[in-house]
Amino acid sequence: MSRKPFIAGNWKLNNTIAEAEELIQALLPRVGAVEDVDVVVAPSYLSLAAVVDSARGSAVQVYAQNMHEKDSGAFTGEVSAPMLTEIDVHGVILGHSERRQFFGETDRALQLKVPRALEAGLIPILCVGETEEEREQGDTERRLRHQVQEGLEKVPVERLHEVVVAYEPVWAIGTGLSATAEQAQETCGFVRALVQGFDKEAGNAVRVLYGGSLKPENAAEILSQPDIDGALVGGASLDAESFAAIVEAARG
Ligand code: PGA
Fold it and tell me: Where does ligand 1 bind, in terms of residues with CB under 6 Å?
């Protein structure tokens, strides 16, 4: 089963519109014509429209970092799928551990967000991962099973393969301490098996990403693992050279 590699840069709460513009302009000559890897950047909401416009005509796709499950209503501070598709955003990161940890994101809400994104024409990246404590207590698989099953439960089987799942151990995010290639492979393989539990073919086709302190230095080893189809990159995606080097590593 050949799966197209997928590298996404999560810019998190970084870059004003002017800075986002500078970063995309630095990225376009380096990765704008890459066709054999899905190259994604996820700026903050305010920079989305500007980055979409700058990336138009290139191979770079632009994703949001979150989305509300409802299209409209009394939900102060939220942004919905139609607001994102109106400005030609391609997809959305959902359930990032920082959303879960600091902003009360729940598996229950994700159960609605993931199918809503697909229905609206956005590719969802569903993020899952265990905390350090959960890993130490041998709870990694239980935690991941819960997150994957809840997050994908309401996705129609025929669209399951379109979802991208990012496995990001919470203890590896922004810490400089990435999982080893063996740990990352083992756990991404487990995540794939969970998707296969819904539908064998969808599990074979779904892209599973690793995230957590991925850098140009460790990218090639991690990305060469059989069940790892790409990466969700935080810190290293803020530097055009580093991000381009990771995209290059994904081309094999
Ligand atoms: P990091 O973040 O690469 O800075 O560890 C990854 C992520 O949060 O997606």
Answer: 10, 168, 173-174, 211-214, 232-236
**Exposed / middle / buried, residue 86 (Cβ in 10 Å: 0-12, 13-18, 19+):** exposed
pLDDT (tens digit, 9 = 90+) per residue, 35-71? 999 999 999 999 999 999 999 999 999 999 999 999 9
Query: Which atom of ligand 1 lies at the shortest distance from residue 172's CA?
Result: 5
Q: How far apart are CA 252 and CA 233, in angstroms?
A: 17
> Residue by residue, what is the 3-state secondary structure of 41-80?
EECCHHHHHHHHHHHCCCCEEEEECCCECCCCCCCCCCCE
CA of 53 to the centre of ligand 1 (A): 25
User: Which helix (H) or strand (E) is 81 found in, with range?
Assistant: helix 81-86
- Ligand 1 centroid to residue 205 C-alpha, Å: 24
The conformation of residue 193, written as its DSSP 8-state character, comes to H
pLDDT band for position 176 (cuts 50, 70, 90): confident
Which sequence positions are flagged as catalytic?
96, 168
Instruction: Judge contact between 68 and 110, C-beta under 8 A.
Output: no
pTM of the model: 0.97
Please name the residue whose Cα sits nearest to atom 1 of ligand 1: 234
